[in-house]
Specification:
The protein is of the alpha/beta class. The protein is about 45% helix and about 15% strand.
Length: about 350
């Protein structure tokens, strides 16, 4: 029965997308997407959307903060119809800057669960990832691991690596700790993590896993999908790293593992609102979500799409029990506190 439902849902999505070919010259229809995502999977999906609808997608890629600033500066003169950002905190920031317009759609209501979208429908989740512990099994036993809070214990002195405080993933992790613990305790937590660093924060998430395998550290704080991308990398060392390390989802007996989303919103001054919504509907469809899940190793936000077998092998996990809009609410305070404790 479920297979029949998925098949019918896919057919319905294709019919809906086909219906958005406007007028007799679809080649003249173009929507402009500002995005910080840079994956081949995304481009293939934009091409697929054009194939289905005749609507072309003009991509402008840049860092999230630069895209937000550009939208602010351009105002009603912007060409952007859609903004895609890989962090709920920055999506909240864009909303606070009045850069989005609310969107209602029965298709989006079906495709995107409440926990993965803005409460007022200003942005919708695209994919989900978890920020977990990645450790070397020869130097760390799973039984030693428990919570984010436990990483401040002196037993972890000189054993932890992660990215810098300027990285949005760590800023949003800190914002979640503020939401859960309050500012004072969150600052104490961040200070404890800093004291246990094996080195000054540097590099991307892949570099943290490499540091663990190279013996620089025993444990890294990083996002799940990087392990999948490394395991299927063309770089033999990255494959070795991914095969060597293990994944642990923290706080399963307490507040849950921190998650974040890539998400998207229609810009306030979009000139092609209807077609921008059609693209969001497609990107949250079963077809597109399956591609994100199986080609980029991200967790799908569509409840009827199964994650990649690698992610399934890690098991299910309890997520933090906070709404994602709080990552934006506490973003500025998170940055301030990280700076105060010397998280470089």
């Amino acid at each position: 029965m479920k297979k029949i439902y998925l098949f019918l849902s896919l057919i319905l999505t294709m019919l809906i997308l086909a219906s958005c070919q406007l007028g007799s010259s679809p080649d003249n229809i173009t929507i402009t997407v500002f995005t910080e995502r840079h994956y081949d999977t995304d481009q293939l999906l934009y091409d697929r959307f054009t194939e289905l609808t005749g609507i072309k997608v003009n991509l402008i890629r840049d860092e999230a903060d630069k895209l937000i600033t550009r939208l602010q500066n351009e105002g009603s003169d912007t060409e952007a119809d859609l903004l895609i950002i890989a962090d709920a905190g920055r999506l909240g920031r864009a909303k606070a800057f009045d850069l989005f317009q609310p969107v209602t759609s029965s298709i989006l209501e079906e495709n995107v669960p409440l926990e993965y979208k803005d409460p007022e429908n200003y942005w919708y989740g695209l994919t989900m990832r978890a920020r977990v512990f990645v450790y070397h099994p020869d130097r760390v036993m799973a039984s030693e691991l428990s919570t984010y809070e436990d990483l401040t214990d002196s037993k972890w002195r000189g054993r932890i690596v992660t990215r810098t405080s300027t990285n949005i993933y760590n800023q949003s992790l800190m914002a979640s700790m503020i939401a859960i613990m309050g500012e004072a305790d969150a600052k104490t937590w961040a200070d404890g993590i800093v004291k246990n660093f094996a080195r000054d924060p540097q590099g991307n998430d892949r570099d943290q896993a490499k540091a663990v395998v190279s013996g620089v550290a025993d444990l890294a704080i990083m996002n799940t999908y990087y392990i999948g991308r490394m395991l299927y990398s063309s770089d033999p060392f990255e494959v070795t790293v991914a095969e060597t390390v293990r994944i642990f989802f923290p706080n399963q007996e307490t507040t849950g593992t921190h998650i974040n989303v890539s998400g998207m919103g229609v810009t306030k001054h979009s000139k092609n609102t209807e077609n921008a919504i059609k693209l969001i509907e497609f990107l949250t469809s079963i077809e597109a979500q399956s591609s994100y899940a199986h080609e980029n190793f991200e967790y799908p936000i569509h409840q009827d799409v199964t994650p990649h077998e690698l992610l399934l092998s890690w098991g299910t996990f309890k997520k933090q029990e906070i709404t994602l809009d709080l990552l934006g609410t506490h973003s500025a305070k998170a940055i301030m506190l990280l700076n105060e404790v010397g998280w470089k």
